[in-house]
Sequence to fold (270 residues):
Amino acid sequence: MISLTGIARTYEVGGRPVHALRGIDLEVADGDYLAVMGPSGSGKSTLLNILGCLDRPTAGSYRLDGAEVAGLSDQELSLVRRHKIGFVFQVFHLVPRLTGLENVELPMLFAGVPPKERTARAERALAAVGLADRVEHRPAQLSGGERQRVAIARATVMGPSILLADEPTGNLDLKSGREVIELLERMNADGLTLIVVTHDPAIGSRARRQLRLVDGAAATADPPGAQPPDPHGGQPKDPPGAQPPEPPGAQPGEPPGEQPDKPTSAPREG
Fold:
């Protein structure tokens, strides 16, 4: 569970304060799917850096799984990032001289995972993103979509509970972008908390909830438990147990589909 209260981030630029975030309140439940949207310079990436424990807020409270993040040491924050949070970026940040398998192994190498286990887990992670046959390829031998899938495998190989994706489709063509976002959504369906930063309304509308930022402040935010819009433009689904609407002309309490008997022709005058 992520809980933000009054989060602010201010930088000093040329001796003047720049307010990147202003009083952000946000709740993200385990397994949620949130899109953070807004124009360039609205504070989206700053918020993602704070959520990912890469930066500290100037003011406000950030609680992660009940623990106040401000009270954690740098070493404790490093452990949080290692075990709880995965990162996917617009730029893939793959090491060019390493194979896909070796790139996915990197987080486990730093975590001290034994070599045999590293290889087995990296192979499983690459198979999970559809790249079982590309493990020995280097980034230059992969398409943009395949590179991003290697990056997703690397981000999830440590089994995080939260995945933060900053413009994950920004450098991809339409087909590859759709494949990547569908892959992330399948992971979310399996219980991974997914937070995506995007300027693309088509990507943002797929999320269960949207947070829209303008000049560092929340312009609109969907409450926890909000339902995603129907991508086909239909009406929201009825809640469980709701009764279907009665057909035109039905009498209250009539079973669905039954109508009062009606004469088939007008009665003759005597």
User: Anything to note?
Assistant: The CA atoms of residues 69 and 76 lie 9 Å apart. Residues 228-270 have pLDDT under 50 and may be disordered.
